[in-house]
UniProtKB/TrEMBL annotation:
The protein's name: TLC domain-containing protein
GO MF annotation: an example: sphingosine N-acyltransferase activity
One GO BP annotation of this record: ceramide biosynthetic process
Keywords, comma-separated and alphabetical: Membrane, Transmembrane, Transmembrane helix
Pfam families assigned to the protein according to its UniProt record, in alphabetical order: TRAM_LAG1_CLN8
Record's keyword annotation contains DNA repair: no
Cell location: Membrane
Source organism of the structure: Cylicocyclus nassatus
Keyword Transmembrane attributed: yes
Domain TLC: 110-326
Transmembrane feature ranges: 159-179, 191-214, 294-318
Record's GO cellular component terms: membrane
Length: 347
């Protein structure tokens, strides 16, 4: 009986402790502006808010995107690679091996298939982002990200865009771990995917979605050109890779080294320094860590960390651009894998 009583006590204690931790974690003090509660973030007839519970769909859709990726690689990219001459072995056994978990080994075609998958998603995501932003006020005036925050309406299109972007990064995180060819920047890519997922989750939870859409749209533009340049390089085209790579460098610099650090980040900083006190909470000071909400400060730190990754990758890109020009490297993320890349052959 004593053991049974202790077991009941421990179960009750753990339940209460868990409830307390969850309640404290979701305290409005950490998340929302003054005089705003979670009950204010419930949907009404006039406005739809992002719901934290909806984030569960990102995991479900993430695994769905993994399945879509495997099917596309098996029944679209593999046949195209076989027609283009990337694959010399019989096609049907390769398709079966890929769809049943073989994932095409580490051949050059596997890298092409990875690029084709990411390119397909980025083109769709960037196009959708452009169409959405054409209907949103923050494209012309970044301060609209903060005017009236957090009481911004989330349209159905924005809901799907944000959820699917987060789902894609879940799929990318799992794919990097178990499917993709292991590259030199494996740990940095995992960090990037995890950081992006957390940023999307945090911004969704406090309805910083307008700002998040701008950040996603800005990042997808350069990724389209990067994947295109890599595919052209793998295909051994002579002029196209260099031309696309130069355009990629221009877009990368414009979006990630100019617009992001000199427009998007200052908008966040200045808005929480000036605009939010004027619009939402007069007592709020970003540098006073006792002033709530606290989560925007976490988001700012993560956005600055993302900028550090941008600078690092720019250094890598510029360093390897010379090797690419000389025909030494096929992928801007494979500097330490040059010898292995030279040995990659189709089975």
């Amino acid at each position: 009986m004593a053991k049974f009583g202790i077991s009941i006590f421990l179960h009750s204690f753990n339940h209460r402790l868990t409830h307390l931790v969850v309640r404290e974690f979701w305290d409005e003090y950490f998340w929302l502006p003054q005089n705003t509660s979670w009950s204010d973030m419930t949907n009404t007839n006039n406005i739809s808010y992002p719901q934290v519970a909806d984030l569960r769909y990102t995991v479900i859709f993430g695994f769905a995107l993994l399945i879509v990726r495997i099917l596309l690689e098996s029944f679209a990219f593999l046949p195209l690679g076989w027609i283009a001459g990337f694959i010399s072995s019989p096609l049907l056994p390769r398709i079966w091996k890929h769809v049943s978990g073989g994932f095409a080994g580490k051949s050059k075609f596997k890298k092409v298939a990875e690029c084709a998958w990411r390119l397909s998603f980025y083109v769709c995501a960037w196009t959708a982002g452009l169409m959405i932003l054409m209907e949103e006020p923050q494209l012309k005036d970044i301060s609209e990200c903060w005017r009236g925050w957090p009481h911004h309406n989330i349209t159905i299109a924005v809901w799907w865009y944000y959820i699917l972007e987060a789902s894609f990064y879940w799929a990318s995180f799992v794919g990097t771990l178990f499917i993709d060819v292991r590259r030199a920047d494996f740990s940095r890519m995992l960090l990037h995917h995890a950081m992006t997922i957390l940023l999307l989750y945090l911004s969704w939870s406090i309805n910083m979605v307008r700002y998040g859409v701008l950040v996603l749209f800005t990042h997808d533009a350069a990724d389209i050109l990067l994947e295109t340049a890599k595919i052209a390089r793998y295909a051994n085209w002579q002029t196209t890779p260099n031309v696309v790579f130069l355009i990629f460098l221009a877009v990368w610099s414009a979006t990630r080294l100019i617009y992001y650090p000199f427009w998007l980040l200052p908008s966040f900083w200045q808005s929480f320094w000036f605009d939010v006190p004027n619009m939402s909470q007069s007592s709020y000071r970003l540098t006073n860590f006792w002033h709530h909400p606290l989560v925007p400060r976490v988001i700012l730190v993560m956005l600055l960390s993302l900028l550090v990754l941008h600078v690092f990758w720019t250094y890598v890109i510029l360093k390897i651009a010379k090797s690419v020009t000389n025909g030494g490297v096929d992928d801007v993320r494979e500097e330490s894998d040059i010898r292995e890349a030279e040995k990659d052959k189709d089975e």
